[in-house]
Design goal:
By secondary structure, this protein is an alpha/beta fold. It is built from 23 helices and 26 strands. The strands form seven sheets. It has a six-stranded mixed sheet, with helices on both faces. Strands 4-3-2-1-10 form a five-stranded parallel sheet. Helix 22 links the parallel strand 15 and strand 16. The radius of gyration is 27 Å and the shape is globular. It starts with a helix and ends with a strand. Bound molecules: 1-deoxynojirimycin. 1-deoxynojirimycin (NOJ) binds next to loops. 1-deoxynojirimycin binds next to loops.
Length: 759
């Protein structure tokens, strides 16, 4: 009995570390926080609005050396870039030494998995599998929470239409309707029902707002857009996340109509809180309060602090502006005590909701860290997510590979683990990842097939680029063989094999934050390799790893097959193998348009008709002299090993009024020779309205499995809600008249039917 008791006590201590508890919470959150606020000094309040990075990981330009002293003196209430039970406990112990023992909140960029890494968000979105996206967020939360974390800086829901911008990798693509659904799935996955247990974390929707509109795709650049574009397109997914109950919001680096988002009262208070009813707290992005000086809207840090807090920006990430200036601003009455208290209350509420006042060590558990991280179940989910994210872009009868073909596995990304977990895989351990080579050779020994490997090229031969990437953890290397020798080796291997699998693309550092590119092809030295491989006459399967749409016109014209795998995460190699060998029939569809050339950017499916739509016989129409207007691969595009045929679009009634729905149906037949999944997509168009409408807008999709030889009838219900838009007075309504509904396999290839909207 005694032994049991001692064991129980040790175990309890190990699990919760709850030896020093703060004030016990009163009956309601409000009365508890009212009481606490009364006890707090101004310095303690400012501390709650201050967030510093630890020195464990670096996600921005500065580290505050003194952050530990700030914690012990109550001048820092939240920490990011600190995880593991041991380290978070150590820091939480410091907070427990402060007068009021207000627990620290630990945040981190858990973007596509914590330790078990899932595909980059742009890739995962291409699975069009909302339930799987919710599960991957759940798993990320479970692992993060087991590692001491309370709060993830995800989901990133910026709408992206410029693939030069490296951060498209973190987004779910170009479409607001789909983006909204994904945003909500992610929020549910991270937060559960809004009362997180110790396997859930708070989510943070970012970057509020319009960050994806950066001009010329250059990170941190100016955004300038109409209110209509904001409300109809760019703001939609943030609003969806708010409606799903996201706990926190991160402001963006960009300006909105001349005023930086971080100091934009219209954005952070009028829209976010008053109009949308957001109740949580807003955190700045990394030093974005300070950066308002560079934006040119204020002259010094003190003014920046006043502008931000008065605008509704509650927590200062890494800028130390509130910490250094807020007390004086209060004394000078440039910021009111009521404003300060309102912000502090929001932060305390988040800590309360997490249960940290009851137990500041609620998320500290070595035992959970061991049990909940890198589990077999998480690996399986990551594998499924990775293969469902893969998009087959071209297939000239070469895939799936035959088990008895000999394979030349070539390319700098074929035997690489570091790159395939992708950017923003912050705590991810790439050594746990499965490379394509490991997966192929492993399966080769099982199948008795022969896989010969040659690197063929470095990821890049550009020394300047290599240096830039390596300055921030790139670890890119130059092979001891020169480029020509590498290519010769690869050709020799290709010549001995039946088929070439060339694994090429970007390094993970070529996309993500501060990773814009002006040319978005495969790096030029890899193109040289690819051309040499094609010249051997062997069929070439191009397996791509990259964080953005690439320009692939030459590849489309010359290689036998193209498989877009993004950065697939921990299980990427196994996922790729399973698609190449037809163990899994690819079902991913692009959520971002692939341009033919950089000159077409921005390019997206929901464009408008213009007054002079393209007409090849008319010089004075909207087009290029040198290329078609169409993209290389449109939004929603992706092939399968089988073929799906669409027919018989029909509607149950021809008119739709204020109430009720119409049902539009189509038959989809699998007339190929494999079972397969298809993402059936439904779009609408209002061809004549008081305000010009896009040529197509996604309004529904269904991902369904159709056995070979089978035909399924797929139906979608539509109501007038689906046809509403902002009219010329920015009133949200629909207009009477004929509209089109389209159903098809991608945004370009659809069947059409007309219905009439009546008032
Ligand atoms: C800057 C990035 O813009 C943001 O997405 C990230 O969450 C923060 N740094 C913290 O690392």
């Amino acid at each position: 009995m005694k032994i049991f008791l001692v064991a129980f006590l040790i175990c309890t201590l190990q699990i919760t570390y709850s030896q020093s508890k703060p004030v016990a919470p009163a009956s309601t959150m409000k009365s508890f926080i009212d009481d606490l606020l009364k006890k707090m000094t101004i310095d303690e309040k400012i501390g709650q609005l201050t967030l510093f990075t630890s020195d464990m990981a670096v996600t921005g330009p500065t580290v505050r050396e003194e952050y530990k002293k700030d914690i012990t003196s109550g001048r820092c209430g939240s920490i990011f870039n600190a995880y593991t039970p041991a380290f978070t406990k150590q820091l939480q112990d410091m907070a427990m030494q402060t007068r009021l023992k207000i627990p620290l909140l630990f945040g981190y960029d858990v973007i596509h998995g914590h330790k078990t890494i899932f595909p980059i968000p742009l890739g995962e979105a291409c699975s069009w599998d909302l339930a799987a996206m919710e599960r991957s967020a759940q798993i990320a939360a479970k692992e993060a929470a087991a590692d001491g974390l309370h709060w993830t800086y995800s989901p990133m829901v910026d709408i992206v239409r410029d693939p030069r911008w490296g951060r498209v990798a973190e987004s779910s693509g170009e479409d607001p309707w789909l983006g909204a659904k994904i945003a909500q799935a992610k929020v549910r996955g991270y937060q559960g029902n809004g009362k997180p247990n110790n396997e859930q974390v708070l989510a943070c929707v970012k970057h509020f707002a319009l960050y994806g509109g950066a001009e010329a795709g250059r990170d941190y650049n100016t955004v300038d857009m109409s209110r209509r574009a904001m409300f109809e397109t760019y703001l939609v997914p943030y609003k969806a996340a708010i409606d799903a109950g996201v706990a926190t919001v991160m402001s963006s680096f960009n300006e909105i109509d001349g005023i930086p988002a971080t100091g934009n009262k219209w954005l952070l208070t009028d829209l976010l809180r008053k109009q949308w009813g957001f109740k949580g707290f807003v955190v700045s992005d990394y030093t974005s309060i300070n950066e308002m000086i560079n934006h040119g809207v204020i002259t010094n840090e003190s003014e920046a602090g006043a502008l931000a807090l008065n605008a509704g920006l509650d927590m200062d990430m890494q800028g130390a502006i509130y910490s250094n200036h807020l007390k004086k601003l209060i004394a000078e009455k440039k910021v009111s005590m009521a404003t300060l208290d309102a912000s502090v209350r929001r932060v305390l509420e988040a800590k309360y909701i997490l249960g940290l006042f009851q137990d500041p060590y609620k998320y500290v558990s070595e035992q959970r860290a061991q049990m909940n991280i890198f589990t077999a179940e998480h690996n399986t989910e990551s594998f499924e997510a990775a293969r469902r994210s893969i998009v087959l872009l071209k297939n000239d009868k070469v895939l799936p590979l035959h088990n008895n073909s000999s394979v030349a596995l070539i390319g700098p990304l074929a035997d690489n683990k570091k790159e395939l977990i992708g950017n923003w895989s912050a705590a991810g351990d790439y050594k746990r990842a499965v490379s394509v080579r490991d997966a192929m050779v492993g399966s080769g020994s099982v199948r008795g097939i022969k896989v010969r490997y040659a690197k063929g090229a470095n990821i890049t031969d550009d020394p300047v680029l290599m240096q830039k990437l390596n300055n921030y953890g790139g670890e890119l290397t130059k092979d001891s063989l020169n480029p020509q020798q590498l290519i010769e080796q690869a050709i020799a291997v290709a010549q001995q094999s039946d088929v070439v699998v060339a694994v090429l693309g970007e390094s993970q550092g070529m996309s993500g934050e501060a990773a814009s590119r002006s040319e978005i092809g495969i790096p030029s030295n890899q193109q040289v390799l690819l051309k040499a491989l094609v010249a051997t006459g062997k069929p070439v399967v191009l397996v791509l790893m990259n964080g953005r749409p690439l320009t692939l016109q030459w590849e489309q014209d010359n290689v036998a097959a193209i498989v877009e795998t993004w950065f697939g995460g921990t299980q990427a190699g196994n996922a790729i193998r399973s698609v190449l060998y037809g163990e899994y029939n690819p079902s991913g569809k692009l959520t971002m348009t692939f341009p033919r050339s950089v000159g077409q950017i921005p390019i997206y499916y929901s464009a408008k008709n213009t007054g002079r739509p393209m007409d090849l016989n008319n010089k004075y129409s909207s087009k290029y002299l040198d290329i078609p207007n169409t993209p290389l691969y449109p939004f929603g595009y992706g092939l399968s090993y089988t073929t799906f045929q669409y027919s018989d679009i029909s509607v149950d009634k021809n008119t739709l009024g204020k109430t009720g729905t119409v049902t539009v149906s189509v038959s989809v037949s699998n007339n190929g020779s494999y079972d397969g999944e298809e993402v059936v997509q439904m779009y609408i168009r209002d061809p004549v309205a008081s305000v010009a409408r896009p040529l197509k807008q996604l309004r529904g999709f269904k991902k369904i499995n159709i056995s070979k030889g089978a035909t399924e009838k797929i139906s979608f219900n539509l109501s007038v809600e689906d046809f509403k838009f902002y009219d010329k007075d920015m009133k949200w309504d629909y207009e009477a008249g004929d509209v089109f509904v389209y159903i098809g396999t991608n945004s370009s290839d659809v069947k059409e039917i007309k219905i009439r909207l009546v008032k």
